[in-house]
Amino acid sequence: MNRTKGILLVLTGAVFWGIGGTVSKKLFQTYGIDVDWLVTTRLLIAGFLLLTVQFFRKDRSQILGVWKTKRIAIQLLIFGLFGMLAVQYTYMASIKHGNAAVATLLQYLAPVMIIVYLLFRKQTIFTRNDLLTVSLALVGCFFLLTNGSISQLSVPIPAIVWGVLSGIALAFYTLYAIPLLKQYDSLVIVGWAMIIGGLALSLIHPPWKIALKMLPLESYFYLVFVIVFGTMIAFWFYIESLQSLAPKESSLLGSIEPLAAVLTTVFWLKEPFGLFQWAGTACILMMIVFLAMNKSSSKVHS
Q1: Residues 196 and 77 sit within 8 Å (Cβ to Cβ)
Q2: Which ranges of 79-156 does DSSP label H, i.e. alpha helix?
Q3: Which of 189, 137, 186, 188 minimizes the C-alpha distance to 163?
Q4: Cα angle for residues 93, 236, 290 (degrees, 5° grid)
Q5: Where are the domains of the chain?
Q6: Structure confidence by residue, pLDDT tens digits, 92-143
Q7: What pLDDT, in 10s, does the model give residues 234-253?
Q8: When you count CB atoms within 10 A of the terminal residue's CB, does the N or C end of the chain come out lower?
Q9: Please, which residues have CB within 8 angstroms of residue 243's CB and are 6 or more apart in sequence?
Q10: Nearest CA among 233, 180, 199 for reference residue 85
Q11: pLDDT tens column, 250-285
């Protein structure tokens, strides 16, 4: 029963993540919601909710305890600004200029970027598995972004730039989080990181500066979905799945996230997707599954 529960949790969380990106695109495209405002609001509310879950379900002393050591506090601030905020903002910006499918797939290039980084740092050697991973990523990206035509890109350049930056940010986010997550519960680290990122962006774009009264009723449902289901519950379900599944299994099942983003983008938002782009999507999905089957480390989500 526990294993079945874990599988249902991780699949539900991953689907929420993928659909959340598509719903965000709907908010940008149809209702003119500002990217800065959505990222700020999403981070602040989801972060507060995650810390609330920690308060009622786990070791509540960690919520403030994480700030008692200067070194940890500085690491948490860096993680919140250059990890969490960077990941969330670049991902949403890529969605705004392109679509959720391409943004999600480009973000999933992070494992390849981590491999390259570790090679440069001489912390790993280049294996056959790495060659296959990088090859699938490069071929997948080429088809995804060009639809098989070298002469023109099928995806706007700003969307590609923000998407690649999102992958880089996720690579940093994943590597930098490791020592923090060894010392404190993930809900505490990610919850505070979201609040830190949200507060920092609030200085540039205060969340209360938006005319919500002018928006139609359905837009509020989309906002709630992105903030609660596409962020807070998605992450919580993923973390909870690790109680009954191995990290490798949760990571493998989590690969349904980009598939959910692609399907909802194509069939709900009616975004065009060419034959070669489907082939590129298949390559990147194969890369994700291959990595999940061959890595025992846990995956940290955005």
Answers
A1: yes
A2: 86-97, 100-107, 110-120, 128-146
A3: 137
A4: 70
A5: 2-294
A6: 999 999 999 899 889 888 878 888 888 888 777 778 888 888 888 888 888 8
A7: 988 888 887 777 766 776 67
A8: N
A9: 2, 6
A10: 199
A11: 766 777 888 899 999 999 998 888 888 999 899 988
